[in-house]
C-alpha cells in the first residue's frame, strides 16, 4: 500500500493548547485557533498541521479532503478518573453515598466476574467515550482481573490509549468483592505480565482499603 493511501486530510477550524499548563491563568495565552486549517494524518500520527493555504500543496490529487469548515475541531479529551463498571448505572438514585454503593454499585460490579459480560460492557463503554470525544482515559475496573483484561482487549482492537487496573478492596464492601493485599498483588502482577507492561494498578477509594493493601 502506498503512503498516499494511508494519508488523511482534514480541513476546518481548529483549536488546541500549545503547551502544558500548570496554572489556569495561563490557558488563554496558550490557546491556538486556526480558522481555516489543515490536519494531515499518516498511519495514525500527525504528519502536518497548520494554515490551509500553507499546507494544501502537500495533499496528493488522489486524496479526498474531509471538509469540516463551519465546525470546530479539537484534540481528543482525556478523562483522568472514570469507573467503567458503573456505565450501566449512571443516574442511579441514592440519598447517601454508602446507600448508593450498597444498593447499586457493588451488585453491579459483581457481574464483572463473568468475562463475557465484562467484554460486552467494555465495548459499550469505549463506544460511549469515543462518541463524546474522549480518546484517552484513566479507568477503574472492578476487583476482578478479567474486568481489566476485557477493557484492554476492547481498547486494543481500535488502538486506543488506556490506563487502567483492577480495583483493590479489603474492607467496607460485601464479601463477594473483597480481596487481600496478597491476592491483589499476585493478580496485578499476573495481569501486568500478560499485558506486557500495558497495565497499571488502580487503587479504589481509601474507605475500602486497609493501609497494608495500599503499601
Major beta sheet, strand line-up: 3-2-1-4
Helix and strand string, N-terminal first?
Answer: EHEEHEEHHEHEHH
Distance between the termini: 51 Å
Number of strands: 7
Mean pLDDT: 87
CATH class membership of the largest domain: Alpha Beta
The helix count comes to: 7
Helix % is 25-40%
CATH topology of the largest domain: TIM Barrel
Number of domains: 2
Radius of gyration: 22 Å
**Beta-strand level of the residues, as a percent range?**
25-35%
Q: Supply the helix-strand structural class.
A: alpha/beta
- What profile does the largest beta sheet have? 4 strands, mixed
CATH-derived architecture of the largest domain:
Alpha-Beta Barrel
Shape: elongated
| Poorly predicted ranges | none
CATH homology superfamily of the largest domain: Metal-dependent hydrolases
List the helices and strands and how they pair.
Layout: E1 7-17, H1 27-30, E2 31-42, E3 45-51, H2 52-55, E4 65-73, E5 77-83, H3 97-110, H4 115-131, E6 134-140, H5 145-157, E7 161-165, H6 181-194, H7 211-214
Parallel strand pairs: 1-4, 5-6, 6-7
Antiparallel strand pairs: 1-2, 2-3
Helix pairs in contact: 4-5
Identify the notable features of this structure and list them briefly.
7 strands, 215 residues, 2 domains, 3-stranded parallel β-sheet, 4-stranded mixed β-sheet, alpha/beta, TIM Barrel, 7 helices
Quick synopsis:
Helix content is 33%, strand content 27%. By secondary structure, the protein is α/β, with parallel strands linked by helices. The protein folds into two domains: 3-75, Roll (Urease, subunit C, domain 1); 78-214, Metal-dependent hydrolases (TIM Barrel).
Amino acid at each position: 500500500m502506498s503512503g498516499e493511501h494511508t494519508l488523511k486530510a482534514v480541513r476546518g477550524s481548529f483549536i488546541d493548547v500549545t503547551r502544558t499548563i500548570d496554572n489556569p491563568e495561563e490557558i488563554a495565552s496558550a490557546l491556538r485557533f486556526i480558522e481555516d486549517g489543515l490536519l494531515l494524518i499518516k498511519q495514525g500520527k500527525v504528519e502536518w498541521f497548520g494554515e490551509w493555504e500553507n499546507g494544501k500543496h502537500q495533499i496528493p490529487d488522489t486524496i479526498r479532503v474531509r471538509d469540516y469548515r463551519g465546525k470546530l475541531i479539537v484534540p481528543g479529551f482525556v478523562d483522568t478518573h472514570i469507573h467503567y463498571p458503573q456505565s450501566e448505572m449512571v443516574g442511579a438514585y441514592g440519598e447517601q453515598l454508602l446507600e448508593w454503593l450498597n444498593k447499586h454499585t457493588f451488585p453491579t460490579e459483581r457481574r464483572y466476574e463473568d468475562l463475557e459480560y465484562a467484554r460486552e460492557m467494555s465495548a459499550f463503554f469505549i463506544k460511549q467515550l469515543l462518541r463524546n470525544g474522549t480518546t484517552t482515559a484513566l479507568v477503574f475496573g472492578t476487583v476482578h482481573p478479567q474486568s481489566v483484561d476485557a477493557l484492554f482487549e476492547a481498547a486494543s482492537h481500535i488502538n486506543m490509549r488506556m490506563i487502567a487496573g483492577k480495583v483493590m478492596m479489603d474492607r467496607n464492601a460485601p464479601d463477594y468483592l473483597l480481596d487481600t493485599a496478597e491476592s491483589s498483588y499476585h493478580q496485578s502482577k499476573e495481569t501486568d505480565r500478560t499485558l506486557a507492561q500495558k497495565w497499571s494498578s488502580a487503587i479504589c477509594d481509601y474507605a475500602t482499603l486497609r493501609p497494608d493493601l495500599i503499601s
